[in-house]
Predict the 3D structure of the following.
Amino acid sequence: MSDSKKKKSEEKAKLREEIKSLRARLVAQQQQLRAAKLPVLVLIEGWSAAGKGSLIKEIISEIDPRFYQVISPAILPESESRYPFLYPFAKAIPENGKLVFLDSGWMESAVRKVLRREITREEYKCRLRQINEFERQLRDGGYLVLKIFLDIPREEQFARLKVLRESADTEWRVTNDDLWQYAEYPQFKKTYDEFMEKTEEAVSWHVLDGMKKKATVRDALKLLVTKIDKALEQGRYVGEPFEEKFPLIKMPTLKEVDLSPVISDEEYKKELKKLQSRLSELHNMLYDRKIPVILCYEGWDAAGKGGNIRRVAYPLDPRGVDVHPIASPEPHELNRQFLWRFWTRLPRSGHICIFDRTWYGRVMVERLEGFCSEKDWQRAYNEINEFERTLTDWGAVVMKFWIHIDQDTQLARFTDRQNTPEKQWKITDEDWRNREKWPEYEVAVDEMLQKTSTKNAPWYIIESNDKKYARIKTLRLIVKTLDKAVKEHF
């Protein structure tokens, strides 16, 4: 054997040993990830035919399949295309202690959209901002995010696509999009470079040479196990709170709100019929114009949220509306970033969803009951504003209602529930316990209203000592807002 052949053989053997050793480390780390409840998200982007799928296959070959998932979110069914841009990626984030590998993701989706001119440059910039916010929220919430881009030159891409197309068994793997990417390689390269430059704020990109497949596997495994080791050593990252300047609407404190407004039974019946009829008409227009609507209800226990929601939901086509009662998070929800369970409940375009309790639990009950750290709830104001801006950028109408009563009214309603057999299911020991914390909750609610009533997603305080007045006021606000929305989308 010549010296050169011997050297190559030794290099290959060394490479195989390195990969074997790194795989063994990753297998061991899987149990450590579970113990530390550390979630890992690996995004594999790159050129068509660069070997993204093969790389993922090599990385996961030895680890327990019960604790990882491979997702190709860029391949979306038509139904999912009616959700916000980040929806399939937010839905895919892993539970604590598990790994998710994304075979292409938000990079490929955004770049292809802008190069096809399906979105404008301004919309593209908006998506870049949303991506940076999304990645930062994951990082600050304790996620380990690794972003890899597989790079190959144009000539190599052509050669690989050619091989695939020449076999009847693999021809199907080459799509028109792949051929288009090859034809427009210089433009894609420019846009990929720009994308990576502008999405480095929270999580860095790692560009790997896809020419030598085994070396690429070694390099990707080394990146992953090194980052996991570091994260396990340092513990889950907790981001520092910060405030972005959102256009806020000044809100009164709860003590400043006059709760005396009432409505007569006659006026209530007349207005209820008129407003519900108009809301039914508007629902058809919203569907036709594909405008999503998100109605958020928060308020004191026994304030009348349920009755208010029923009067709003009744005139709507049940095929186009969902009501989500939000209780304490289930284990699989608690094990993910706090907004995940709301991302997964968003409406499709043209549909309405109503949240009975919302993501604002983070800055109220979770804050006061110690279910999250102080940094978590302080950071949440900004994260919520970003989330709601993402929704309104998508085209959603977002309205938020605080259903407000005074303490005497709450006591009277609690007592009535406790003394009426058919209503007793509505009152719990926890309701009485929460009532004792009224002053602390009032401080938290005031801060929430001041920091999250934005021009794109405003809060409305609904005086509900008189439940009928509260229902009519809410319906009037909804009808007025949706009337405006359908006219703007005509």
Q: What stands out?
A: The chain has two domains: 13-234, 254-488. The first strand starts at residue 40 and ends at 46. The radius of gyration is 27 Å.
